[in-house]
Amino acid sequence: MTNRSARERISDFNEVPRGYTAEQAIEEAKRCIQCKKPKCVAGCPVEIDIPGFLKFVAEGDFASAVKKIKETNALPAVCGRVCPQEDQCEKECILGVKGEPVAIGNVERFVADWERGTAPAVSRSDRGGGKIAVVGSGPAGLTCAGDLARLGYQVTIFESLHVTGGVLTYGIPEFRLPKAIVNLEIEYIKSLGVEVKTDMLIGNVYTVEELLKDYQAVFIGSGAGLPKFMNIPGENLDGVYSANEYLFRINMMKAWKFPEYLTPIKIGKKVAVIGGGNVAMDAARVSLRLGAEEVYIIYRRTRREMPARVEEVERAEEEGVIFKNLTLPVQYYAGDNGWVKEAECLQMELGEPDASGRRRPVEIPSSNFKLQVDTAVCAIGNSPNPLVPHRTPNLETEKWGGVIVTAEGLTSIPGVYAGGDIVRGAATVISAMGDGKIAAKAIHKQLSAGGI
Amino acid sequence: MFKILKKERLAENISRLVVAVPHIARAAKPGNFVVVIPTEKAERIPLTIADADVEKGTIAIIFQIVGATTKLLDSLKVGDEIPHLLGPLGHPSHIEKFGTVVVIGGGVGIAEIYPAVKALSKAGNEVIVIIGARCQDLLIYQHELGKQCKDLRITTDDGSCGRKGFVSDELKDIISSGKKVDLVVAVGPVPMMKVCCEVTRPHKIKTVVSLNPIMLDATGMCGVCRVVVGGKTKFACVEGPEFDGHEVDFKELTDRLKPYRDVEKQALDHVCRLLSITPQ
Ligand SMILES: Cc1cc2nc3c(=O)[nH]c(=O)nc-3n(C[C@H](O)[C@H](O)[C@H](O)COP(=O)(O)OP(=O)(O)OC[C@H]3O[C@@H](n4cnc5c(N)ncnc54)[C@H](O)[C@@H]3O)c2cc1C
Ligand SMILES: Cc1cc2nc3c(=O)[nH]c(=O)nc-3n(C[C@H](O)[C@H](O)[C@H](O)COP(=O)(O)OP(=O)(O)OC[C@H]3O[C@@H](n4cnc5c(N)ncnc54)[C@H](O)[C@@H]3O)c2cc1C
Ligand code: FES
């Protein structure tokens, strides 16, 4: 796939890659050698029949290809865009040993886009299966709901925000995942018979125990929405945002269209984004598009340890983001107007490997320096959203907040399942979807066997 | 979509709406608030639940028209529908029998104390209520509060009603009269809450304040509402909004309320154009 030029794309919020033409998609799909025991499928958390759908694409039968994908994945247009294929299916592709793996994600994206606008192929059983409540409309909740609806259950999703989609809507920016696409995928789930109720904060408006009175099972997919801060002096100054606040204002509240949309944001000329993950890259690239002159990524390790997708780091760099690696902010200072004006940072070096296997960053004494900034965005990670666990006394969690589940997604409360970031901590779209699927299967098994 | 059943103008620039929203009415407790989005392009704004009626399935909100979104909310009429209403949010007020409780409401905070006054009285407390506003025309809920407590005191800055002065002056007098006060609850503008805390601090009277930082999601996901209490950063939307006033860093709260003041003017002008009215 080719990308639009960096100069062109930082002046708008449109997508970066141009996408395949039909000819390109067919050509790429033909590269698949149709392994007897395809390793790529094992690399996919939702086990898409990859050679199967590629075969259809190679034959030019895009409709059958989409149908094949949708047997196990209800959100292909999303996954084709944001999945880390380089760590999953494409990593396992046999062609990758000697050359380039098949660009599975790009082909998936193509066929999903090809299908858009044509009426979705819906198949669902009758609604005899009973009522299920799903908490959260992110990829975990949507997938679980879609699968259960297809099995004939009457599913209601409760979402606390006024928009659906979870991180797909409020977090990942338009230029990486157009909201029109997310909305179509959600419409597809709704067309399966799923009811979505927004503005419903479970825990407050209904407790999980109360839901269990009206629903035969509950799936919790409430995500990792709790922003982490560094707890350093000056972090509460005006101009210092959590990445969630920053992206909420921009993606969910459309602050980039202020005052047509009434939620404001102030993007300075010099923006420092702290962190090295996808969230940090998104915050940095959004800043450029909103007119920041200099945007820094401040990361305490080196580029090699960055958790962000390689592709996103490269795009950020092409667009002009300045990487300050091996750097750690220790304090923010305000100017006369009370706004952040400077970030004091320390230089780091890499020491011994830590528990994650990555080399630990160690401070270099007296290496302090000051960086002029007028906006700082803290993107050092999110923890599982504590709200539902706090209000559900018997729901067991790990010390770090993750809800504890069995291999089937069952929590410590009978009839209550969980999956996605609320269980794993901040992870990926596809792992959340995988969890939603596993839980749907387990719920079906349990209810078919006679309930809880 | 939630239908507006009743609308009243309580004072210049203060309105009261009664909205049909049974699931919130059912779960609401004193001290809870809601997030309102009056039109699809508006902000998410937090407003206290000023009353809830479980049987009728309604809640009341009382708001001062200060900017773009409250202006839009006020442009809705009886029969119109509010597209998004989220709640109940925040920790409910702690209600038990404390003994003598002084509850103070300033400005639109007068409406916010109503559910707590009702609940504290019901729990068997002797409740003294002090309400204050700039002038008589801005005083609200006098009558309703009078019905919920035996001792209602009024102050106005210009003396047009009740005592000339501030609510904190009245609080000082109650304390120096020798009356044993077990708890003070103060809700209103930041400077008012701060002064009330200064009055009670030397007497070591526990003082609960309800903080009103800027909020966005109001479900604990963004951190814009962070306030420093007892040296620790807290998210007011989920850990508050009520806190021990003696521990609150009011200076930081004041600073964190101001970052958008200049652009809010632009938003208000935009809304006035939309509604075809001239900005004040
Ligand atoms: C900026 C950003 C960029 C990312 N980029 C990528 C990427 O490129 N590739 C990738 O694979 N992953 C990426 N991720 C991670 C990925 O988005 C998440 O792992 C995934 O969305 C988790 O899905 P989920 O369904 O578990 O939770 P979420 O998507 O977080 O959805 C949870 C939903 O539950 C709602 N909720 C919370 N509490 C309640 C409650 N009490 N009642 C009702 N509803 C509630 C929330 O409002 C939310 O809508 C990114 C994350 C962010 C923040
Ligand atoms: C938990 C909570 C409960 C609240 N309950 C009520 C209530 O019951 N009734 C009511 O009238 N208001 C209440 N508020 C305040 C209310 O949310 C704001 O007045 C409202 O958001 C203003 O929106 P706007 O777009 O109309 O004005 P904006 O354009 O956003 O602001 C206009 C002016 O008001 C100031 N302002 C904005 N937000 C606040 C705030 N939170 N506190 C003080 N000043 C602010 C701005 O700095 C600006 O000068 C509450 C706030 C919180 C956090
Ligand atoms: S308003 Fe977002 S965390 Fe409180």
Automatic annotation (TrEMBL), chain B:
PANTHER family cross-referenced by the UniProt entry: DIHYDROOROTATE DEHYDROGENASE B (NAD(+)), ELECTRON TRANSFER SUBUNIT, DIHYDROOROTATE DEHYDROGENASE B (NAD(+)), ELECTRON TRANSFER SUBUNIT-RELATED
Textual note on the cofactor: Binds 1 FAD per subunit. Binds 1 [2Fe-2S] cluster per subunit.
A molecular function GO annotation: metal ion binding
Matching PROSITE patterns: FAD_FR
Name of this chain's protein: Ferredoxin-NADP reductase
Keyword field: 2Fe-2S, FAD, Flavoprotein, Iron, Iron-sulfur, Metal-binding
Binding sites annotated in the UniProt record for [2Fe-2S] cluster: 222, 225, 237
Entry annotated with the keyword NAD: no
